[in-house]
Amino acid sequence: MKVAYWPGCVSRGFTPELHGSMEKIAPKVGIELLELDRANCCGAGVIAEHNQELADTLNARTFALAQQSGGAMMMNICSTCQGAQSECQERLDASTEYRDLINENLAPEKLSYEKGITNKNFLWLLVEDIGLEKLASLVKRPLDGLRIAPFYGCYIIRPTERLAYREHPERDQYLEQVIDVIGAESVAYTGSHKCCGFPVITMNKETSLTQAGRHLGDAIDAGADALVTPCPLCHLNLDLQQPEAKKFVNRELGIPVLHFPQLIGLALGLEPKELGMGKHVVSTKAVAAKVAAMAVAA
Amino acid sequence: MPNYVLNIRRFSPESGEPAHWEKFEVEMEGHRPVLDAILHARNTEDGSIGIRCSCQAAICGSCGVRINGNPALACNTLLRDAVATAKDGATIDIEPMGNMPVIKDLIVDMDAVHWKKVQRVVPWLIPAGEPPEREYVVPHEAMVDVTQTMACIHCGVCVSDCLSMEVDPEFVGPAAHAKAYRFVGDPRDAATETRLRDLAEDPHGLYDCTHCFKCVEVCPKGVSPMNQIMRLRRRATGDFKIKDANNGYRHEKAFVSIIEKWGTLHEAKLLPDSYGEGIFGKLNPEAQKQLIASAPTAVRGVLSGKVPPLKVIHHHKLPDQKKIKDIYKKIHGRDDRIELNLYIVGEDADALAAESAPAEAAATAADGGES
Ligand code: SF4
Ligand code: SF4
Ligand code: FES
User: What span, in angstroms and rounded, lies between the C-alpha atoms of B287 and B282?
Assistant: First the structure.
């Protein structure tokens, strides 16, 4: 299946291992990525906070490029891109008059957004369009005994109405479902559906890193080997900032945080190194060692 | 009639007993609200169950509780819906709201948290000079604009699970911020800038919201407190250029101009730019401290091999960057910011008609396409 692929700024910048691992696993799960290399930043809610029309225009531009690409739908690998883009899409799709106004802003580039694009995070696409059964059949290395704590990121779980939970009521359970299907064990803990704190990292570090620190601590206490997240911004606060976060919760931390495509990659038989797991701030060695001891089917 | 199992969190401070769960079975139709079942248990089994309620119609705002872990009005949540979200598929967990001290069972101290915070934002109109002889004349659009925040019934449901307040109890919070917008958006109020400045200069104010959408999700009245916070920020930075205590103004400015210049986010620039005029420029003093505190983060990024050192100084522009600049120019050149508030406008009539009569709409679209 061909998809218009928006990797997002962070996966091309601070978390290159995310972009890299997605490219590695795509052909294995039957996705052809048509990368939107002319598209712009989704604004992460910050541009909308500054000026709604600007945010809506920039995202309508991305949607228009995706509609030109020939992909069956648009796919992202970032909860924040999903949320910010869905917010703009909600306004664009609600009013013909407003959409016309925004399309006028795009006219000099000869672009135009037509109502009703389907835009999915890879997590959603994997469960809804590829399917858990198909995924199970592709698993080469069941991650037996690996205890994984899911971390969703606010932007793909709230608000449920905008994110089409009416049609897909289990979207806030997909991580657990996938973790189970690939043979690992999903760990329940209080922080899985809470906020990583990233949006206020430059504005109130204490609020931000107390949030991150608590979730990491809770996952450790629940016995997790690693967290997994479909959001690179959550990854920044949970992994890159982890050494700092421990100061705000007064305890030792030190739990690796995997990107969602990395976890899938491991189950598909790829090696930790190929998936860029050496590029994390918190060492992933213990996870890699556990994985190395597992059998890979030919 | 179906049987529902309520699992109620009990606590009375004077008993000396710790909080505990207690189960009650209630026979009732599924379309009845959870509140009816709680009252039934109180009337028939244990008269000491503590719950606050009055209107039983989602108007008075007294019956906020957590149902299966999510905050909601007990009178506004049907038993059959509650059982659908039960953790074991059968037992409905009912707890007091969070972020506020428990007085007894399901009753929390709204005065200690919610009402204090609402008072904090001066929740009354401050007019300019003497009131007019007759009524104030206000443009219709302006009043429509604040109707969403006026819908608040002060139930505290958003306060219960605000994820910033959970880690920072001093955060002004969703409901009080929504109340602040009620007056910031009111043309009769003369203290707009003072109100915005007050909230922006409070480190636990406007820029302490972590954008988690929790309040948007749970509010039973569609107030969308977070959206009101974003509108307050828009007014504070866009209209009054208020430099807040948390560097929110500079962060927004830096982010928006990086996208104007490069098209995609250049994180290595975002941090220093948020704190001053670029990394080599002059830093404003309050930002200096924060930047130094953040320096290890960037260094950690490079050391872990995540961020190639070149990336820190070099970032590609998008091929059509000129076009993005033109978009910025056009939109920033407008006299007024254009905002579409779905709460007020709703889905448009065309779109609704098209959905109910797809064949006809498709035909019209095809005609339009050929002409
Ligand atoms: S969006 Fe902001 S105000 Fe609303 S619950 Fe989250 S942190 Fe609190
Ligand atoms: S904003 Fe909504 S949830 Fe919060 S107090 Fe008002 S009505 Fe209740
Ligand atoms: S009893 Fe009044 S809102 Fe529920």
Answer: 10
Alpha carbon distance B262, A249 (integer Å): 37
Chain A residue numbers with beta carbons less than 8 Å from the beta carbon of B296 are: 243-244
Pocket flag, ligand 3, residue B61 (CB < 6 Å) = yes
pLDDT in tens, chain B (371 residues): 889 999 999 999 888 899 999 999 999 999 999 999 999 999 999 999 999 999 999 999 999 999 999 999 999 999 999 999 999 999 999 999 999 999 999 999 999 999 999 999 999 999 988 888 998 888 988 888 899 999 999 999 999 999 999 999 999 999 999 999 999 999 999 999 999 999 999 999 999 999 999 999 999 999 999 999 999 999 999 999 999 888 888 888 888 888 888 888 766 666 655 654 433 334 444 454 555 555 556 566 665 666 655 555 456 788 888 899 999 999 999 998 998 888 877 776 555 444 444 433 333 333 333 33
Beta carbons of A57 and B296 less than 8 Å apart: no
Which among A9, A44, A207 has CB closest to B210?
A207
Residue having the nearest C-alpha atom to atom 6 of ligand 2: B152
Cβ separation of A46 and B255 shorter than 8 Å? Answer: yes
Work out the burial of residue B151: count CB atoms within 10 Å of its CB; fewer than 13 is exposed, 13-18 middle, 19 or more buried.
middle
Ligand 2, residue B64: give the atom nearest the CA: 8
Reported pTM: 0.90
Distance CA(B152)–CA(B58), nearest Å, equals 11
Cα–Cα dist A133/A152, whole Å: 22
Ligand 2 atom nearest the C-alpha of B151 is: 7
What ipTM was predicted for this assembly? 0.94
| Ligand 1 contacts CB of residue B159 (under 6 A) | no
Q: Compare all CA atoms of chain B with the CA of A61 and give the residue at the minimum distance.
A: B324
CA–CA distance, A85 with A92 (Å, rounded to integer)? 10
Centroid of ligand 1 to alpha carbon of A226 (angstroms): 27
Ligand 3 pocket, residue B54 CB under 6 Å: yes
Ligand 2 centre to CA of A53 (Å) is 27
Closest residue, chain B, to A97 (C-alpha): B348
**Assigned token pair, B135:** 């009524």
Around B220, how many Cα atoms within 13 Å sit in the side-chain half-sphere?
24
Residue for token digits 């007894």? B104
B53 lines ligand 3 (CB under 6 A): yes
Q: What is the largest CA-CA distance in chain A?
A: 59
